[in-house]
Design brief:
The complex is a heterodimer. Chain A has helices spanning 3-18, 28-40, 57-60, 120-128, 139-147, 381-389, 394-410, 416-429; strands at 64-65, 86-91, 94-101, 110-113, 151-156, 166-172, 178-189, 194-203, 208-219, 224-231, 237-247, 252-259, 264-273, 279-288, 293-302, 308-317, 322-331, 339-348, 354-363, 369-377. Chain A has two domains: 3-275, no CATH class; 382-430, no CATH class. Chain A is an alpha/beta fold. Helix content of chain A is 21%, strand content 40%. Chain A is globular and about 65 Å long. By secondary structure, chain B is an alpha/beta fold. Chain B has one domain. Chain B is built from 14 helices and 24 strands. In chain B, a hairpin with a 2-residue loop joins strand 3 and strand 4 (145-149). In chain B, helix 4 packs antiparallel against helix 10, helix 8 (165-171) packs across helix 9 (173-179) and helix 11 packs across helix 12 (453-464). Classes of the chains: A alpha/beta, B alpha/beta. At the A-B interface, strand 18, strand 19 and strand 20 of A face strand 23 and strand 24 of B. Strand 20 (369-377) of chain A pairs antiparallel with strand 24 (428-437) of chain B, so a sheet runs across the interface.
């Protein structure tokens, strides 16, 4: 593709996102910087090492329009059964107060859509907005920072424990069109505080959705966070998700990325361990079929000594699906006594599925224990034989094996209703 | 100085000798042989290529082939994706041709330039009679032109061709024409294109159908002329049912200016044949403090298992060079073919290595094994970069990769960049990598038993690399073990 066509497609892309912006922007200085950065950035393409296995050309052919205001009266099917939580619903990127229910964590946890920030929440927003994710080297982050007008501030002040999880439900209703949406979470868990967040994405009806999400997550000293993302969109949905987590001393953070829906999904998950003795878990599973293409790009930066990180991504690829995984562990010069583990395991069910995996270690400190492993294969023949010998049909044995394979990730989720919900989804799929 | 050192060493017990080596040896093979050479002017252009070609009396088609490569090279950009960092190379500031002036036409060893014999002696090349007993046929290359080939007759009886590349161009033009560039095409990469344009010499090996080569074939490369780039080209063809083991070992004199080395090695294994290719590389790694003067080693090595049941095995012990950029690869085209890669890469001082392999599975039931042991010390950076690709038609392909890194000291870096691409569900690909330092408990154990720390490290490192060293032919394995110790000199404490 020549440069000029690339530039036109970039202009088109920017236009589709700009349509949503209605003037009054928060934190104008950060936004202006991002807008300036947009000038220089190009659309990621396969010539870039970090995008080697994912092409965005299909997106560039679409003609995104402004979503029409949509009326949904019942969001219960999209809530996780049995999960007692604060619920926030966003339809086509817009916060729907009438569909949401808040108040369970009164006083401990603040949930403020960007349009409603004022007073203390505005201060928090100004303090953290745009601080973690730089706009200079990532086009999609820059677009989000420049133009996203909808978002959510999730704020747990010092020493507060949010006893109930927060559920954020995103629903898109493209109604036969191509729509482009942006969302942004600013998740701040201050020192000695704790929170759990479940965010899920769905599509209703025909048409395609492109989501460009950005999440800035700060976990303070001795704080805890569990953040679960469920990507369950329709077969025409695309998603670019960029999450960056900064951890303080003695903190613990887990991020789960579960991908079952969507046509083209790219997840960037970046961790920065800014202080000592932190614990980090990156867990993901992707169950793909059709022509789905899912690319998980993860990076853990061990900047300080005595930190522990553990990464496990497992994928099942059916039909003509493609999976890509990049896991990079960077251990900085001073980060002695680092323990970092990483594992990516894949099962291909058909001859037409493809998996590309790039587990990487970049290590500059000597007193470390780091390992990574990657495997790709099919369902264990011996185990299948064992099950069949015990009277299970081929189909049942297969189901059981797939279930067990994904369970290794899912069972680490501390919220039982979410586990059960996912297990049901896996059972329904296979 | 060298004599003094020898005297000292003799007085010491064997244990102390190792310490001596650790602490005092800088670069063992750092000297220059004084042989007059015939040099073309610096720089690269069509005229130089024509000159190289005419000096070698090459046929027209080869000149055309070189010129085309030059044309391709000019359009390419130097790759920058490797995890190495070096000042830009001025390709016009390099000599592309140097040949020993007195090209001996010898009937017997007496006629060979005595300086040369001395060189070989220092290198331990078994050119003389007692060394002949070692059963090694040697094709020694000094500055790009092959000077001596032994055992040629014995090998000829079996129909084995083992000669310098330039000779082969004249004697077996059809074979060269058929195979040159068939595994590493001129368009492959920047350095391969450069080599194709200006390669001066190398080795050619041809093993006919059903023949098992009775001895290890070996070539010692030596970069000898100041500011001379060395562009070797090796081509090994193993016909159906044949077997060959080929050794390549390198040392180079100490010098100040960076030297570029861009070799190309092509292996072709037909049905049921096996090629084993071993390398011990110990080029000047540059000044340990500044990194100045080391060799740049940008090599393209690739083999193709063309026939069913064929096998190619790469073994490398890399201790030298300032920059190493090297990925010996195997294309597993034939069904049931096998590829192996065993590597020990040691970096110390300011060395930078980016090395690994590519295993491309195309045929059914193909197997590959990768064992890579990286050792970083000093202020060096050592990266493993590898690709395992299972193509759609490669039913039941199997790969296992083990990449371990060992860090000695807190100023070095160890990195792993594997790429795994699988397009067939019956393929089974496993990759494992670990990074750690030498266990304190291991050192403690050795110290308790009276070893000093340097020796303990040397022993642990040799044990760590054993899996790879075991793959080397005997004579090489001994040399390689010594090399490992020497390379890690001064890295402890």
């Amino acid at each position: 593709m020549s440069n000029s066509t690339l530039n036109t497609s970039k202009e088109e892309l920017l236009k589709s996102f700009r349509k949503n912006l209605n003037g009054k922007a928060l934190v104008p200085s950060v936004r202006e910087q991002a807008q300036a950065a947009l000038e220089k950035l190009e659309i990621p393409n396969r010539r870039m090492e970090d995008w080697k296995y994912t092409s965005l050309e299909s997106l560039q052919k679409k003609n995104f329009v402004t979503p029409s205001p949509s009326e949904i009266s019942d969001v219960d099917p999209f809530k996780i059964e049995g999960l007692v939580s604060d619920v926030l619903v966003f339809v086509n990127g817009v916060y729907k107060e009438e569909l949401s229910s808040l108040g369970l964590n009164e006083g401990n946890l603040h949930l403020v859509p960007f349009h409603h920030v004022k007073g203390e929440s505005l201060e928090v927003l100004n303090k953290y907005f745009g601080k973690l994710v730089a706009s200079e080297n990532n086009l999609f982050s820059a677009i989000n920072t420049a133009y996203a007008d909808q978002g959510l501030l999730i704020y747990v002040p010092k020493g507060k424990i949010a006893e109930h999880p927060v559920q954020i439900v995103h629903i898109s209703t493209p109604e036969g069109n191509d729509i482009a949406l942006q969302h942004r979470n600013l998740l701040v868990v201050e020192d000695n505080a704790s929170a759990k967040v479940v965010e899920s994405f769905y599509t209703i009806g025909e048409g395609s959705t492109l989501r460009n999400n950005l999440h800035e997550v700060t976990v303070g000293a001795n704080a805890q966070l569990e953040y679960i993302k469920l990507q369950l969109e329709g077969s025409e949905a695309s998603q670019i998700d960029h999450t960056e987590v900064h951890q303080g001393r003695d903190s613990k953070a887990s991020v789960f990325t579960i991908t079952m829906g969507g046509d083209l999904v790219r997840n960037n998950l970046i961790f920065r361990l800014n202080d000592q003795n932190t614990e980090t878990h990156l867990m993901g599973t992707y169950l793909l079929n059709g022509r789905q293409h899912v690319d998980n790009f993860t990076q853990v930066n061990h900047q300080e000594p005595n930190c522990f990180s553990n990464e496990l991504y497992k994928g099942i690829l059916d039909e003509k699906s493609t999976g890509a995984f990049t896991g990079r562990i960077n251990v900085f010069r001073d980060a002695q006594k680092t323990n970092a583990y990483q594992s990516n395991r894949n099962i291909l069910l058909t001859k037409t599925a493809n998996i590309f995996t790039k587990p990487q270690l970049e290590i500059y400190a000597d007193d470390v224990k780091c390992s990574h492993g990657a495997t790709t294969g099919q369902l264990d023949k011996e185990a299948m034989f064992y099950l069949k010998a015990r009277g299970l049909s081929e189909d049942k044995a297969r189901k059981l094996m797939i279930h067990a394979f994904t369970l290794e990730v899912i069972e680490n989720i501390s919220l039982e209703p979410v586990q059960e919900y996912l297990e049901q989804l896996v059972s329904d799929r296979y | 100085m060298a004599e003094d050192q020898t005297l000292q060493v003799e007085e010491l017990s064997p244990d102390e000798k190792i310490i001596q080596e650790f602490t005092e040896k800088k670069y063992e093979y750092g000297w220059v042989t004084e042989i007059e050479t015939d040099k073309a002017p610096k720089g690269l252009n069509e005229d130089i290529i024509r000159l190289i070609s005419s000096k070698k009396n090459e046929p027209e088609w080869l000149l055309e082939w070189r010129l085309k490569a030059f044309e391709i090279w000019q359009k390419m950009e130097e790759p920058d994706w490797a995890h190495v960092d070096y000042p830009p190379i001025d390709y016009q500031d390099i000599y592309y041709y140097a040949a020993p002036k007195k090209k001996p036409q010898y009937e017997s060893l007496d006629e060979v330039d005595p300086e040369l014999i001395k060189t070989f002696e220092k290198l331990g090349i078994p050119l003389q009679e007692q060394k002949m007993l070692a059963g090694v046929a040697v094709d020694a290359v000094i500055d790009s032109v092959s000077v001596k080939t032994t055992y040629k007759e014995k090998l000829a009886e079996l129909g084995i061709i083992f000669m310098s590349f330039s000779e082969a161009v004249h004697e077996y033009p059809e074979l060269i024409k058929k195979y040159i560039g068939s595994v590493v095409p001129r368009t492959d990469n920047y350095f391969a294109a450069l080599n194709s344009a200006v390669f001066t010499d190398g080795s050619f090996v041809y093993i006919p159908k059903g023949v098992r080569c009775p001895m290890e074939l070996s070539t010692y490369f030596r970069i000898n002329e100041q500011n001379t780039g060395q562009f070797e080209r090796t081509l090994i063809v193993a016909e159906e049912g044949s077997y060959v083991s080929y050794l390549e070992g390198c040392t180079a004199p100490m010098r100040d200016e960076n030297q570029l080395h861009a070799a190309v090695v092509e292996l072709i294994a037909e049905k049921d044949s096996e090629i084993k290719y071993s390398t011990v590389q110990n080029w000047y790694p540059g000044n340990p403090e500044t990194g100045a003067g080391g060799i740049y080693n940008f090599v393209t090595k690739r083999g193709i298992c063309r026939g069913d049941n064929s096998k190619i095995s790469w073994t490398q012990v890399e201790t030298g060079s300032a920059i190493t950029w090297k990925y010996p690869s195997v294309i597993l085209k034939g069904n049931n073919s096998e590829g192996e890669f065993y590597s020990v890469a040691v970096t110390n001082g300011r060395q930078q290595a980016d090395t690994g392999t590519k295993m491309v599975h195309m045929g059914k039931n193909t197997k590959s094994l990768i064992v890579s042991k990286g050792i970083s010390a000093g202020k060096s950076n050592n990266s493993y970069r590898g690709l395992v690709k299972v193509m759609n038609g490669a039913e039941n392909a199997r790969n296992f990769s083990q990449c371990d890194s060992l860090l000695i000291g807190d100023q070095c870096g160890a990195h792993t960049f594997p790429y795994i691409e699988v397009g067939n569900p019956t393929g089974m690909v496993e990759h494992e990598a670990t990074t750690s330092k030498i266990g304190e408990d291991q050192i403690f154990y050795c110290l308790q038993r009276g070893l000093d720390e340097e020796k303990a490290v040397s022993m642990i490192v040799n044990g760590y690399a054993r899996e790879v060293l075991n793959q080397l032919p005997m004579e090489f394995a001994v040399e390689a073990q010594k090399l490992l110790s020497i390379s890690l000199e001064g890295s402890v404490g």
